[in-house]
Amino acid sequence: MGVGPEDAAPPTTSDDADPSGSWPAPVGLTAVPRPLLAERQCTRTGCAERAEVTLTYHYGQSQVWLDDLVRERDPHTYDLCDRHARRLSVPHGWHLDDRRFTRAALVAV
Ligand SMILES: [Zn+2]
Q1: Which tens digit of pLDDT belongs to each residue from 52-109?
Q2: Can the peptide bond before residue 24 be classed as cis, meaning omega within 30 degrees of 0?
Q3: What's the pTM value of the predicted model, to 2 decimals?
Q4: For residue 42, how far is its CA from the centre of ligand 1 (angstroms)?
Q5: Where are the domains of the chain?
Q6: pLDDT digits (tens, 9 = 90+) for 95-105
Q7: How far is the CA of 29 from the centre of ligand 1 (A)?
Q8: What DSSP designation does 25 have?
Q9: C-alpha of residue 79 to centroid of ligand 1, in Å
Q10: Ligand 1 center to residue 25 CA distance, Å?
Q11: Å from CA of 14 to ligand 1 middle
Q12: Got the DSSP string for 38-77?
């Protein structure tokens, strides 16, 4: 894909800087109780877009996956809006596996 981890130093989106600069964040994010199955928001700071993508990461494997939004939240996942998912870049040495594009590409052009 067009994602190049080599030149993507800070793991933030390119258009709006995340002041925290901490991604992936430590496990144990603020446990905000949200009703399952409800519409969820992008977890990016200051973003109010509807979440459409679930990002999952695994430190040990330096691996990041993007999937269609999952129903249940997990400590190792983030919900991202489509825009932030598209602009996502991973830290150097990490691998990004976008598992939703195979399907989405057929629909969203
Ligand atoms: Zn967003």
Answers
A1: 999 999 999 999 999 999 888 788 899 999 999 999 999 999 999 999 855 545 555 5
A2: yes
A3: 0.57
A4: 5
A5: 37-103
A6: 999 998 555 45
A7: 17
A8: P
A9: 8
A10: 16
A11: 12
A12: S--B--STT--SBP-EEEEEETTTTEEEEEEPPSS--TTE
